[in-house]
Amino acid sequence: MHRIFGAPDGVRSSWPAWATLLSTVLIACATAASGEPRFFDLSGFQVFVVKPLDHDKPYCALLKSESDWNRVFHPAAHMGFNKPFAPPAEYWRDHDLAVLSQIVSVTDVLHVYTPTKALLTGDQLTVSFVRRPQKASTSFSEASLAVESRKGRAHRVDFIEDGKPICTFSDKLSGEKNP
Predict the structure, then answer these.
(1) Highest mean pLDDT: which of 2-11, 52-61, 116-125, 132-141?
(2) Are 132 and 165 in contact (CB under 8 A)?
(3) Domain span at 149
(4) Which long-range contacts (CB under 8 A, 24 or more apart) does 50-55 make?
(5) Phi then psi for 57, rounded to 5 degrees?
(6) What pLDDT, on the 0 to 100 scale, is given for residue 19?
(7) What is the SS3 assignment for 82?
(8) Structural domain contains residue 10
(9) What's the whole-number average pLDDT of the chain?
(10) Do residues 74 and 48 lie in contact, with contact meaning Cβ atoms separated by under 8 Å?
């Protein structure tokens, strides 16, 4: 499986910028054509989860539209950054997005989760990942993991952390869950 994000330092820097862009586009096209789910890099957006997060429980949602995105995420403007606040509206024509978010100690928010597998079987999307232990801290932030799938394919989502289910829900119930 090709990892979309989280590659070791130096891997991308050894490629010219055009080669990295080209490989990303080709992989995205191949993934879209095959219909396989893939990990979606939320660090490309300046957003945070609107819903108050519980320190002990994850927040999960299956986003199917721009209005779902706007209900779950709000812009997080930062000086010196110029990232978009949301995917383009056209994105939602072909994709759904399963999101898991948790409050974590602020040590290295971008590397809390190591995705291992995203598998779509029938209408069930199973997302497996490893959560890196965090050092104790008095500061907390939000870490998120997202997986995109072809529009209308996933109706049940299972997030599996270190081999244990931590969030299972069906969009037929509410589309989101804070267990």
Answers:
(1) 116-125
(2) no
(3) 36-177
(4) 50/74, 51/176, 51/178, 53/101, 53/102, 53/103, 53/142, 53/178, 54/103, 54/178, 55/103, 55/140
(5) -130, 145
(6) 35
(7) coil
(8) no
(9) 75
(10) yes
User: Is 125 a member of any domain?
Assistant: yes
Is residue 1 very low, low, confident or very high in pLDDT (cuts 50, 70, 90)? Answer: very low
Tell me the whole-structure pTM to 2 decimals: 0.72
The answer to whether residue 155 sits within a structural domain is: yes
**Judging by DSSP bridges, how do beta strands 124-131 and 164-170 pair with one another?**
unpaired
Query: What is the rounded distance in angstroms from the CA atom of residue 61 to the CA atom of residue 37?
Result: 16
Q: Which two tokens stand for residue 141?
A: 């932030």
The residues, any chain, with a CB within 8 Å of residue 170's CB and separated by 6 or more, are 155, 156, 157
Return the percent helix, strand and coil in the chain, to nearest 5: 20, 40, 40
Confidence of residue 38 (pLDDT cuts 50, 70, 90): very high
Q: How many domains does the chain have?
A: 1
